[in-house]
Amino acid sequence: MKRLGKILAIIILAVILLLPVVITFIIGWRPFIGPKTRELTNRTFERTPERLARGTYLVEAQTGCMVCHSPHDWTQHEAVILPGMKGAGQDMGFIKDLPGRVIAPNLTPDPETGAGNWSDDMLARAIREGIGHDGRALFPLMPYEHYRHLPTDARSFP
Fold it and tell me: Measured at the alpha carbon of residue 65, what is the angle toward residues 137 and 143, in degrees to the nearest 5?
């Protein structure tokens, strides 16, 4: 009986010591301690035709933003975006095994239902850091870890 107690104590101690390592490498500590966030600034981005063209190119040709942020007709072969709904947001329930209900938000400039009232820094923080305009962590389905490395200068991107 004494030997069984020692074995159990060693197993419990091993689990206690390994648990932080497993959490660190598997899911990380952000679900427990909250998102790593920075305060919003009054930073703005110059609005030029070059920046608009670059943004359109990134959104439509490179990053695939509209795949998630626009409702599609999934019954059609190419799953076209519903007319007049580009950027209007979408329930991501079409993805099998997605935990809970995830909704890609409306990115249109509509001030009531879209991103029309978001500041430039709110948008940049959401895209690059995964923190929503209201300070909550965004679901990691959005690859903001990759987007944070996009150059900010329109001339430095093809």
Answer: 45
Three-state secondary structure call for residue 131:
strand
What is the pLDDT, as a whole number, of residue 139?
81
First to last CA, the chain: 71
Distance, in Å, from the CA atom of 55 to the CA atom of 110, rounded to the nearest integer, reads 18
Coil/strand/helix, residue 14: helix
Residues of the chain with pLDDT under 70: 30-31, 34-35, 152-158
Instruction: Answer yes or no: are the C-beta atoms of 103 and 132 closer than 8 Å.
Output: no
pTM (two decimals): 0.70
Bridge partners (DSSP) listed for residue 72: 81
- The tokens for 89 are 């947001």
Tell me, what's the pLDDT at 157? Answer: 47
Whose CA is closest to 104, among 151, 76, 65, 73? 65
How is residue 84 written in tokens? 């007049």
Please write the tens of the pLDDT for every residue from 79-106: 899 999 999 999 988 888 888 888 899 9
Distance CA 133, CA 126 (A): 7
As a whole number of angstroms, the distance between CA 26 and CA 20 comes to 10
* Amino acid, single-letter form, for residue 68: C
